[in-house]
Write a structure and sequence with these properties.
Blueprint lengths: L8 H23 L5 H6 L3 H6 L10 H21 L5 H21 L1 H21 L3 H25 L3 H21 L4 H9 L2 H20 L6 H14 L19
Helix pairs in contact: 1-4, 4-5, 4-6, 5-6, 5-7, 6-11, 10-11
């Protein structure tokens, strides 16, 4: 509303900025596997058609804005798998960004933050196995999270809307989920509903095959891309009402 209070031009401009960032990190992820930057650049434009494929995308929603932070998190994970010796400053920055992304995703749509949590746990496991400054890494992540959250908390306190935010965004949303569970909306029912849509079946097959092929090219932890991709699909399937719930999973088609 601050950019264009009487039209959706502002939404278009902000979403364009976010998608530019998403594609940039798609490029950075692809560049980890190509020696020439031009080759990595060629792998990026096809993702535009993936993100806006009409089977799943027909309007701008929260998932569109979440893609940027998912792509940053995924890039950090893949980079840390491919590069064993990453310096302290780069490590601190990576974890700082993971904290920023987690809070951003929590404020955008917290079920996507749960998906990103799978990536964070994977990065933390890598750090733990490397036996390098896990405490400093976690501290950097907390600083990133607090730095991102603090301006929102200050705004809510100044406008006396913190209670309303918590009530509407968290408590009421969880009540809606609880009501859905009470109406016998089991996870198996969600899976059966997804299996009844050939488009979703084809989409999941492409993601799984792509993640397996991607894992083959990884220098280590070859199963990680598939585990992350399947976890995202599994979490997106829960309480799936519309196909756009899978929008954040589109990024894994980059693995092809």
């Amino acid at each position: 509303r601050l950019i264009s209070p009487r039209s959706y031009v502002g939404v278009y401009e902000v979403s364009s900025l976010f998608y530019t960032g998403t594609l940039f990190y798609n490029y950075k992820t692809a560049s980890l596997f190509f020696k020439e930057s031009k080759t990595a650049l060629l792998a990026t434009p096809p993702m535009i058609f993936v993100y806006f494929w009409p089977w799943f995308h027909y309007e701008v929603r929260a998932e569109d804005f979440a893609l940027l932070f998912v792509s940053i998190s995924l890039y950090i994970l893949i980079k840390r798998i491919c590069k064993k010796n990453i310096g302290g400053k780069e490590t601190n920055l990576d974890y700082f960004l993971l904290g920023v992304c987690f809070v951003a995703l929590t404020l955008i749509k917290f079920n996507i933050a749960i998906m990103q949590g799978v990536i964070i746990l994977s990065v933390l496991r890598l750090q733990f196995k490397s036996k390098k400054d896990l405490g400093k890494s976690v501290t950097s992540m907390v600083i990133g999270a607090v730095t991102t959250l603090l301006p929102f908390i200050v705004y809510f306190l100044l406008t006396d809307t913190l209670g309303a935010f918590v009530q509407e965004y968290f408590i009421n949303t969880f009540k809606t989920i609880e009501d859905a569970n009470n109406n016998n909306s089991s996870y198996m029912a969600d899976i059966n509903r997804a299996l009844g849509d050939r488009r979703i079946i084809a989409f999941v097959i492409v993601i799984v095959v792509g993640s397996i092929l991607f894992g083959i090219r990884m220098p280590r932890y070859k199963a990680v891309p598939t585990i992350i991709a399947v976890a995202f699909v599994a979490l997106a399937t829960r309480h799936k009402i519309w196909n756009y719930y899978y929008d954040t999973c589109h990024i894994f088609i980059l693995f092809l």
